Task: inverse folding
């Protein structure tokens, strides 16, 4: 059974930092692309960052230069380091697993972790 468990969200002031973690289980972690998505109130869910099995990283324009996605295969964990946070980053952040190798489709989501950026 595939499981993705996020943690690390919370309340932070503008300009602050948070590090999100996603611990995966129930599949061979190292052969699937992984990503982070977010959904703000009243808005559609959007992709924030993704990392391929080969280590290629992609980011939404809104977070380039501020967020970094990484993974630790041994720990079966995906991370999202978020720096220089802005109020517009406030959202529920979800960890996601690609459906298959070379696929952009998602077949599993975590429960989400709330990130609130406010002064």
Result:
């Amino acid at each position: 059974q595939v499981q993705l468990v996020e943690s690390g969200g919370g309340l932070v002031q503008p300009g602050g930092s948070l590090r999100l973690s996603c611990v995966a289980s129930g599949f061979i972690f190292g052969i699937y692309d992984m990503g982070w998505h977010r959904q703000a109130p009243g808005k559609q869910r959007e992709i924030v960052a993704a990392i391929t099995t080969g280590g290629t990283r992609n980011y939404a324009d809104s977070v380039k230069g501020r967020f970094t996605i990484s993974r630790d295969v041994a720990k079966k964990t995906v991370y999202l380091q978020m720096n220089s946070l802005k109020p517009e980053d406030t959202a529920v952040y979800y960890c996601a697993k690609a459906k298959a190798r070379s696929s952009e489709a998602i077949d599993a989501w975590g429960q989400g972790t709330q990130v609130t950026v406010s002064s």
